[in-house]
Amino acid sequence: MKKVIFIIIAVVAVFAFTNKQKTEFSKESLSQKLITSDSAQITFKEILAQHKGKTTVIEVWASWCSDCVKAMPKVKDMQANNPKVDYVFISMDKAFDKWKNGIVKHELKGAHYWATDGMKGAFGKSIDLDWIPRYIILDKKGKIITYRAIETDFDQINATLKTLE
User: Fold this and answer.
1) Which of 3, 13, 48, 83 is the most buried (most CB within 10 A)?
2) pTM for the complete prediction?
3) In terms of DSSP bridges, do strands 111-114 and 86-91 run parallel, antiparallel, or are they unpaired?
4) Cα separation of 138 and 150, whole Å?
5) What is the 3-state secondary structure (H, E, C) of the chain?
6) Is the alpha carbon torsion for 13, 14, 15, 18 positive or negative?
7) Half-sphere exposure of residue 8: CA atoms within 13 angstroms, side-chain side
8) pLDDT digit string, tens, across residues 17-32
């Protein structure tokens, strides 16, 4: 009986620590290089620095992702209701042209970057990416307020953004 209780406690502890709300990005994720829409390389740290002083929503998405496409109207509503917020889109597309076409097709307004190695690549692993679309909210100081939100969490996302205005 003691072994069963110990195993249950161990499983709960592991789960609790792996899903812990992070307040800052790891050095590994900050050093990851992404591609800009004009094919230049930029580190994630440099991207974040460009948005310091502004509440920022980061959406990790891909043009091939049906859940991402379904969430686009909610993203546009969020942008319309929160015009002072900066929006950063990081694509997990497999090809540059698919990514660029997706931006145009879905009329995405914001800063755009491409992680060339996809969801299971170095950047995806560094931010614990397990699902897209994924939303990360940063306050004006760059502190992570919401680390893991998905397309079903728009009520929570919008409520959080209202508290950060």
Assistant:
1) 48
2) 0.86
3) parallel
4) 15
5) CHHHHHHHHHHHHHHHHHCCCCCCCCHHHHHCEEEECCCCEEEHHHHHHHCCCCCEEEEEECCCCHHHHHHHHHHHHHHHHCCCCEEEEEECCCCHHHHHHHHHHCCCCCEEEECCCCCCCHHHHHCCCCCCCEEEEECCCCCEEEEEECHHHHHHHHHHHHHCC
6) positive
7) 5
8) 444 678 899 999 999 9
Cβ atoms < 10 Å from Cβ of 91: 30
* Residue 86: both structure tokens together: 């900066």
- Read off the tokens for 118: 């996809």
Q: How many residues does the chain have?
A: 165
- pLDDT tens for the chain, 165 residues: list them: 555 454 445 444 444 444 467 889 999 999 999 999 999 999 999 999 999 999 999 999 999 999 999 999 999 999 999 999 999 999 999 999 999 999 999 999 999 999 999 999 999 999 999 999 999 999 999 999 999 999 999 999 999 999 997
Beta bridge partners of 34: 42
Scan for tokens 């829409």, then name that residue.
37
